[in-house]
Amino acid sequence: MKVSLKVNGKPTSIDAPPDMPLLWVLRDVLELKGTKYGCGVGQCGACTVHLKGSPVRSCQLPVSTLQGAEVTTIEGLSPDGSHPVQRAWDEVDVPQCGYCQAGQIMSAAALLAKNPSPTDAQITAAMNGNLCRCATYHRIRDAIHKAAATSAATPSAPPATTARPRQAGAPRN
Amino acid sequence: MTLDARLDRRQFLRVSALAGGGLLLGTILDFGASTDLLAAGAPKAPGAEFSPNAFIRLSPDGSVTIIAKNPEVGQGIKTMLPMLIAEELDVDWTTVKIEQSGLDTVKFTNQVAGGSSATPNHWLPLRRVGAAARAMLVGAAAQSWNVPASECETASATVTHRPSGRTIKYVDLLERAATIPAPELDKVTLKDPKSFRIIGTRVKGVDNHAIVTGKPLYGIDVSMPGMLYAVYEKCPVFGGRVKSANLDVVKREPGVRNAFVVEPAGTDLTGLLGGVAIVADSWWLARSARKKLQVEWDEGAGAALSSASIAASAAGLAKQPPQRSLRKDGDADAALASAARVVRAEYYYPYIAHAPLEPQNCTARFADGKMEIWAPTQNPQAARGLVAKALGLDEASITIHLTRGGGGFGRRLMNDYVVEAARIAKETGTPVKLLWTREDDMHHDFYRSAGFHNFTGAVDASGKVVAWKNHFVSFGDAEKFATATGNPPFAAGAGIGGGEFPARFVPNYALDASVMQQYVPTGYLRAPGSNGIAFATQSFIDELAHAAGKDPLQFRLDLLAAEIPAQQPQQGGLVASRVRGVLELVREKSGWGTRKLPPGTGMGVAFHFSHRGYFAEVVQATVSKAGLLKVDKVWVAADVGNQIINPSGAENQVFGSVLDGISEALAQEITIDRGRAVQNNFTDFPLIRLAQSPPVELHWNVTEYPPTGLGEPALPPVVPALCNAIYAATGKRIRSLPLSKSDLRWS
Fold first, then answer.
1. How many domains are there within chain A?
2. Is residue A160 part of a domain?
3. Would an 8 Å CB–CB cutoff place B5 in contact with chain A?
């Protein structure tokens, strides 16, 4: 089936099976590997992209629904990783394995576009559909607050840490 | 870990072999020898690189490249190991480029992500690698100035001659440094830790930028011209094989290039299992064609197995005399007969899946008798061996490239998906990417083994533990178990050690074991063994504390009051003072026993020693009268020695491990029906989500011991600490996981 859509602002034509999900169009037809497969049933959020700015699970969107769609992927969020959410994710050092983080970042960016200064409860509501198997959830929350603060051009709070600093004079080998 | 610098090379090798990390040390010595060759043979032309050893490359453009040799699956090793080298090489971290090595057993050993072993195994050796290169650069500077090397110092890739103040950058020394003989690694001078400028600082993951911009880093992202895509259907009953399949129908499906039956290579469940491969132009087409696949299976001996039949067998074995004694101290039965209070309890934990978020995948290309593999494996050397054996190839003809892994948790220590991809590629002659579905991953894991602990314990009138018996029922080779000598043949990850706590600390102690025949493949899930054993042991200790009428935290301190050294320190050889240290720290930080909690809220404590790390954890949990559980907060006290190498990565590992343990306890279970794993996806095998994740407060207890790893040891204690908190909140004792199967209502 032939479909015309916009991916990361670029008009794109594809010819793919009508039931092929957008996820596999992005990954295997357009070679945009940033959007990830985790479950295939809309449960993990690793495949999250924006459809006209709203976060969607690309594993649940077949080609037959994509005519005229405007899709933004992690590769299109910024040309160089300079989106405040991407910067915050790096600075807070969120990733462990990193596999889910493109989906997390897309969900977070959509949240902040709608709500520039979300509360903890609003962050939880917006992010609860994105699984992180490494459970980087604390830092995901911290990074969203940091990105919100950066976007608002206010001085950001020092990164939260609960680790105790090295004890002065502690013995070493 | 400290090796005596006076030892000669032969003694050094012998000692290191005894110390367990010896292969690595040995190889570093070997490569130290080849360093001489490299240096002698280095090109003298201007503009040459200086490559003092297999880990470091200094280039004429001023760049510093450090090779990351170990598989990265989220544990942060690609950042942390190069930090050790960069510190002693004395270059600025911001100038360092990291390059991931593939499997190279000539240059490296220990290219494995497992056992939280990388930190203790590399702490000194990789610092020595950096220091040796630094010594060669200092030697070159001293030679060019005609001054003693001892008058020179380094910082930020620059050598300074202290008396004269002259300086020269490393980049201007490359040619001369290549002519300086490489020092012996065990004789190089290491930095005083007080002068560390990289170790101990918060260093971000080296792949962060690539991750947040969606660059292709993972195995699943591998792509190359002419590559086809494969799916592989195996028998839902573990180890079954294909009788017949409707290949003709499948081959007529759109985009399908090939479909064929694969015969198993032997009967080993960790090897190449039989199945049907479908190869197509895209993964989606391969997956779509699979829906038309019909296979008649020979399901084999496990087809009648169910969770209920396993539980019934375990209960039957628990009533029988144990098949083996693993340890016996004193006379537990006599002590039980005369004790003030006796407690009996049976504990159970289920099979659980690893479920790393990146489904199993591997890309392989077979051409001209050579197999090239791109894999997110935690254990590439084992992968090469497995492929060689199953496909009849020479190991020398197999190349393995390491991709970043989207989570491992021990799943990718097994290389079933690698041998499957290689087998398919050998058949097709084209590059092939095999990708499993999430359902494949749930149905064909090497699960955390289920386990059954049957405890009897007793306290005397003063509340002291006087007897401890455990008849542990697990899985293994049922025929050989009772009679085998040496290590009992437990299934992988399903065993227990004779030193398991509270061995040594209770005068009358008996640990016995029986096994059921293994049909379900088991393996190594983060903190293997410990992740179940800690739940059972630390929950039962809690029961004894309450029977004794003691505070559960003080009860544990009392149990550990004496320092009783282990006869074999490598096997469960915990140091009591280190446990007491973390228990006392977590008591202080959590406000244990000092806060009045509302009805339905309780605090629980547990500790566990595993992977050389000491962790004590307190959980506060609230259970509503209707039985809804909320984990309010977790306090962690950790002792992993004298140096947290990368605090940012270290915190990540601890926070992740703690939430991972809660995730396992809440609702994770793989059940077996008709020999098959029942669960399919995250719908029925749920992972913890943001809304369920409590705050975690971490405190390091810095001690004088050398640093140890953090991939695993924070996980085991959180499970019993949570269950003990539920008891404190509701009076309900949790003896079976997951918690979703327990009725927590109270009134």
1. 2
2. no
3. no
